[in-house]
Amino acid sequence: MAWKIQNIRPEDTYSPLEFYTSEEIKRFSNSSSMKKRQIEIAQRMLKLSGIETGKILDLGCGAGFVLGFLKDQGFKPVGVDVVKSMIAVCKSKHLEAHDADMRELPFKDNSFDSAISVSALQWLIGENADIKKVAKELNRVLKSKSKAVFQFYPNSEERLIAIAGIFSRNGFSAKVAIDNSDNPKKRLCFVLLQKD
Q1: pTM (2 decimals)?
Q2: Is residue 5 part of a domain?
Q3: What are the average pLDDT values for consecutive 10-residue runs of the chain, which has 196 residues?
Q4: How many domains does the chain have?
């Protein structure tokens, strides 16, 4: 049976710029449990996607937990986030991060070998037009046959499948993977992409 989230979440009400106040950014960037969780998710994403090396784009990089992990794994990571204070946190860790929206990336065509996005896409999932912009921009900046993977928290299984469909209509082969589908507290949703 298909699942659907009933409760209202911050991303259903606020934009990232509204939600991530200076207090929230400080709490988030100092959270060892958040860092551990994001790294675990990133490890799972790399395993699912088969991404192994190269220049990788982190869409919605936040405080740089995944950027740091990717750098330690030998990747050449570059992050983007719309929250300027998050970018400042990344730069304080000597990580490359840019104040940019994943719907309008400041990079040349064919710049990246792969891309990853941990827990960020749900801030955009209300609008199909926004997901289409992400797909088109990602397609533009990735090299031919590159892989990408998004982990996010859609509000329903139906929405997860719809988002994969948007990517598949905009230059990607797309697959969906769900870990712990019957456990709402542990459920992780992924869209696995390969540029056509």
Answers
A1: 0.93
A2: no
A3: 78 83 88 96 98 97 97 98 95 97 97 97 82 97 98 93 96 96 91 96
A4: 1
